[in-house]
Write a structure and sequence with these properties.
alpha+beta
């Protein structure tokens, strides 16, 4: 929080009343399975959206960001998109969803500082949505339910609100999803918000997106997570993500299933001829990913990181060959990682079409891995490679 608070005071002339932070997430295994009601494994990592804020009484909202020069200024009663500050669409979309659920709030000022690399696939957008919801809760206490709001929580003697219970976290994740689906225009699933809210230090989060069951399993301390940014910015609102979702939903309908979660691998193979080739490819990837998450969980619980790493490689191959949401730069990063003796597994992470790879690297070999991969990537592409070791952290608060 050390940068966002002085930034807020510099811009607004007073200290903030509250500050919150929400972590980015790394999708460990289960690519695009969330909106198919499937299984996914994720990590909350030590890259954050920090948000500081304070109330105002005129019904106006002003949001500033260390990443963008133009502030966003709008009224509580008039929240529309503006070309000058498109980054503020996430804030506006979240506020509109809270209003629709009966949350009452007045004007406020807010400042944003991010340590999540933009376009790297670590879901800075989800972290911003979650942080915005938590800041509004600090300023104008509310309690979400499945259908709306209940009596607001009471602060303690220090003014602190009680922690969010699991049902409230899930309701909040759905609000964030609706904001990104309906206002921003990305038809994404619940993974990113659940990961940001439910993170647990040193643990992988296991999410069943059919019944929204969340569990955790320790991630063995013999390996560390390294993110390698391809330098290719992905913009999921451009349409590729939504197109993949349409293919998956069309395949499920053709197979008579509510979602691809309900399709077994043997049945998909038997009915391949009933699907257009592109729909079959997408379905094959999703069905296979659900299996890999199941097998991957077993490997983690057995402390078999070598086997778990093989599922990561298999996941990337499926994304590349069947789902087709990889790109040459991501493929190269995985190829280079596979050749390093310290790498246990690697795959693209996030929506794809650019962004980053996740690499599981043996403890003690992280710096050599980063050096070797950077040299190989620059030699083959002419681009400098950015990479980050990631600590697995607790969720938003």
């Amino acid at each position: 929080m050390h940068e966002v608070k002085p930034f807020y005071q510099q811009h607004f002339g007073v200290p903030p009343a509250w500050a919150v932070r929400a972590p980015g997430r790394v999708e460990l295994l289960g690519n695009h399975t969330d909106y198919n009601q499937g299984l996914v494994m994720a990590l909350a990592v030590d890259k954050f959206i920090h948000l500081a804020g304070g109330p105002r009484r005129d019904g106006r909202i002003e949001v500033v960001s260390t990443a963008f020069p133009t502030p966003a200024r709008f009224s509580v009663s008039a929240m529309t998109k503006e070309e000058a500050a498109p980054w503020a669409d996430y804030v506006k979309g979240l506020l509109l969803q809270l209003q629709r659920r009966g949350v009452h709030f007045n004007g406020f000022n807010a400042a944003i500082h991010s340590t999540i690399p933009l376009g790297a696939g670590l879901s800075s957008s989800a972290a911003l949505l979650v942080a915005t919801a938590l800041l509004v809760r600090k300023l104008f206490p509310y309690r979400l339910t499945e259908t709306g709001v209940a009596a607001p929580p009471s602060p303690d003697s220090r003014g602190e609100l009680p922690p969010l219970a699991t049902p409230e976290k899930l309701a909040l994740a759905k609000v964030c999803q609706a904001a990104e689906n309906q206002f921003v225009g990305v038809n994404c699933g619940l993974l990113d918000y659940i990961a940001s809210l439910f993170g647990k230090a040193h643990h992988a989060i296991l999410i069943d997106c059919q019944d929204l069951r969340v569990e955790w399993t320790p991630l063995d301390g013999q390996a560390e997570v390294v993110i390698c940014h391809s330098g290719v910015r992905h913009a999921l609102a451009d349409g590729e993500y939504n197109a993949l979702r349409r293919h998956c939903e069309a395949a499920a309908r053709a197979l008579g299933a509510r979602s691809l979660r309900g399709v077994e691998a043997k049945d998909l193979t038997a009915r391949q001829g009933q699907l257009p080739e592109r729909e079959y490819q997408c379905a094959r990837h999703i069905v296979g990913e659900n299996q890999r998450v199941t097998f991957g969980e077993r490997a983690l619980r057995a402390h078999d990181l070598a086997q778990f790493g093989q599922y990561l490689y298999q996941s990337h191959e499926s994304s590349r060959d069947s789902f087709k949401n990889s790109c040459p730069e991501l493929d190269l990063l995985v190829e280079l990682a596979r050749a390093h003796p310290g790498c246990l597994g690697a795959r693209l992470t996030g929506g794809g079409f650019g962004g980053a790879t996740l690499n599981l690297v043996a403890t003690g070999q992280v710096e050599d891995f980063r050096r070797v991969i950077a040299q190989g990537y620059e030699a083959r592409t002419g681009r400098k490679l950015e990479s980050w070791p990631c600590r697995i952290v607790d969720g938003a608060g």
